Amino acid sequence: MRDRKGGAATGSRLSTRLSRLLNMVPYFQANPGISAAEAAAELGVTTKQLMSDLNQLWMCGLPGYGPGDLIDLSFSEESIEVTFSAGIDRPLRLTSLEATALLVALRSIADLPGMVDPSAAHSAIAKIESAISGRKFEGPVAPAPVEAPSVATVRSALANDHALCLVYYSASRDEVSERVVDPLRIVLVDNNSYLQAWCRQAEGVRLFRLDRIEAATELDEPARPPVDVAADETAALDLFVDDPAVPLARLLIRADYGWVLDQYPMHKVTVHPDGGIEATMRFATLEWMARLLLGFGSGVTVLGPPELVTAVRDRSSSALAAYAALAQDGSAGYATAGFEEVGPA
User: Fold this and answer.
1) Most CB atoms within 10 A, among 24, 36, 46, 175?
2) Of the candidates 163, 197, 230, which is a domain's last residue?
3) Do the domain assignments include residue 54?
């Protein structure tokens, strides 16, 4: 589970770096002789990251990858110049296959909250489609889906480098909280878009899933995350860090319920001869975890800790008592019997 999520996060980071690398060639052609410090500030990266990117860019180029094919740069911390662009400075004509792939990617990312401006994305889609069909693009473009106000506010705060006040629903804690954060960037992790931000309440980097932000207010004050945090694009990208301070549930999963390992952040410990799987899972609140486990019925048995075993047993007893009350009075409805839903959260 962790590897799969880590892979998605890694892919997102590589895509971000590739986009930055491709934009560097025309940027440095337009700004010959610019210093590394000045360029890094304008490109939003550290000087160390910029020099690393330039060393990577120096090994990129056209097929053949010989001396006359690779991008050629003259760079130091005092001055950076492009001496051979390998054609990256020229507009490229997309093949039909490339254009189709670009359309698919644009449509996918346009449906993810906060990743791009929906109006700009749909305008680009319309122009590419008209280019593929051979017809000249003439607006207006079909209206883009309406962006949630909270998502628009998050993107505005990022653009203006302002702090945010969020009202956020945490699924793991099953609670809504209000907090002030310093936004860093919007990232894609496991096909969901998140705001990566410094949380002043927790004093650490946190991920806030955009579709769980119930309200957002852009504050009239600059964002002020710690300098080292702002430069670290990988901070908190693992959604399920194995924090020893968080309670750990020990579970026995029936063989035919092995699918839960793919759906929840569980770690396999051992497999029994009958196919049963012992696994562990971190959880934030006892009540939330008890409700989750009850939804699996007999497919998952709680082995520990004792307080979680007790919570599941007590809720199970309450549910059985409610069913018994219904059986005794067939005319009574759920409300009369005091039935409480105990399925998955």
Assistant:
1) 24
2) 230
3) yes
